[in-house]
C-alpha cells in the first residue's frame, strides 16, 4: 500500500496566530495607550492629544498604596492557593482513576460558577444573621454571632475559592506523572519522608508550582467584583479603581493609564517569577 506524499502546511496558516495577536491584543492595547495620553475634556469625555498628566498621578502616596494593595492581595491569594492545591493534588493523584475523575468533574463545575454567585453566596454565609457566625455561637466557640464580611479574610476566602481549581488543574498533570519509584528509592537510601519530599518531589515540581503561582496571581489581579462585595474600601484593587474612574468619574484617560499600569505590573511579575524559577543547572 503506497503512502500518500506529505503535503506541506499552507503558509497562510502560520499567519493566523499573528493575525489573532494583532486583532485581539495589539490593536486594543494601542487604542488604550492612545486614550491614556489623550486630553480629558470636562464633562466626561476626551479628545486626541499627547499629555502625561494621567501617568504623573501615579507618583502619589495614594496610588502607591492602591498598587501595593493589589499586588499584595493577589500575591497572597496565589501563595495560599498553591499551598492548598499542592497536597490536595498529591492526594488526588494517589486515588483510583474513578475517584480522580469525580473530583476533577467537581472542580470543573466550580469553574462554571460566576464571580457574582460566589461573591454573594460568601457574603451571605459570612454575615451575622446566617451561616458561620450562628454556627460558632451555637457551638459555644463565640459568645454571640458576628459578621465576618466585609473583611480581608472574606476577600481572600472568595479569591482562593475562585482560583483554587486553576491551581489544581495546572499541578495535576505533572503530579500524576511523577514516578513513585523515585521516592521509594530515596527512602531505601535512608532519606526520611520530609527529606524525600524536599530533595526529590519538590525540585521536580518547582516549575509547575511557579506556573500555578503566575496563573493565579494574574487571574486575581483582574478580579473586579469580589473586592467590592467581600472587602472594605481599603482592600479595593486596581481593577475596582479603573472601573470607578471610567464609569463613575468619567475620566477615561486616567482609567486607561491605570489599565496600562496594571498590564505592565502583571508582565513584570510574570517575568520576575520566570527569572527566579530558571533552572540553574541548565545555565552551566
UniProtKB/TrEMBL annotation:
Gene3D superfamilies xrefs: MetI-like
Signal peptide range: none
Coiled-coil ranges (or none): none
Keyword Transmembrane: yes
InterPro entries linked: MetI-like, MetI-like_sf
A cellular component term, taken from the record's GO annotations: plasma membrane
Family: Belongs to the binding-protein-dependent transport system permease family. CysTW subfamily.
Annotated protein name in UniProt: ABC transporter permease
Gene name of this polypeptide: potB_5
Amino acid at each position: 500500500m503506497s503512502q500518500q506524499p506529505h503535503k506541506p502546511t499552507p503558509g497562510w496558516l502560520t499567519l493566523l496566530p499573528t493575525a489573532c495577536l494583532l486583532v485581539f491584543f495589539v490593536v486594543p492595547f494601542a487604542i488604550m495607550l492612545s486614550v491614556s495620553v489623550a486630553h480629558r475634556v470636562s464633562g466626561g469625555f476626551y479628545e486626541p492629544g499627547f499629555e502625561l498628566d494621567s501617568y504623573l498621578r501615579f507618583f502619589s502616596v495614594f496610588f502607591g498604596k492602591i498598587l501595593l494593595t493589589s499586588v499584595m492581595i493577589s500575591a497572597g491569594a496565589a501563595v495560599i492557593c498553591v499551598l492548598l492545591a499542592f497536597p490536595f493534588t498529591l492526594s488526588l493523584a494517589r486515588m483510583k482513576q474513578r475517584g480522580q475523575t469525580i473530583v476533577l468533574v467537581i472542580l470543573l463545575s466550580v469553574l462554571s460558577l460566576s464571580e457574582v454567585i460566589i461573591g454573594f453566596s460568601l457574603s451571605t454565609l459570612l454575615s451575622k444573621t446566617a451561616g458561620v457566625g450562628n454556627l460558632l455561637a451555637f457551638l459555644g466557640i463565640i459568645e454571640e454571632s458576628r459578621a465576618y464580611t466585609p473583611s480581608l479574610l472574606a476577600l481572600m476566602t472568595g479569591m482562593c475559592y475562585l482560583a483554587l481549581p486553576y491551581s489544581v488543574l495546572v499541578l495535576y498533570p505533572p503530579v500524576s506523572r511523577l514516578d513513585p519509584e523515585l521516592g521509594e528509592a530515596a527512602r531505601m537510601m535512608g532519606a526520611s519522608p520530609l527529606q524525600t519530599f524536599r530533595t526529590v518531589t519538590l525540585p521536580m515540581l518547582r516549575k509547575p508550582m511557579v506556573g500555578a503561582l503566575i496563573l493565579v496571581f494574574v487571574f486575581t489581579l483582574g478580579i473586579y467584583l469580589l473586592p467590592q462585595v467581600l472587602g472594605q474600601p481599603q482592600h479595593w484593587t486596581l481593577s475596582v479603581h479603573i472601573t470607578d474612574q471610567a464609569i463613575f468619574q468619567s475620566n477615561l484617560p486616567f482609567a486607561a493609564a491605570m489599565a496600562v499600569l496594571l498590564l505592565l505590573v502583571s508582565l513584570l511579575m510574570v517575568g520576575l517569577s520566570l527569572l527566579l524559577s530558571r533552572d540553574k543547572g541548565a545555565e552551566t
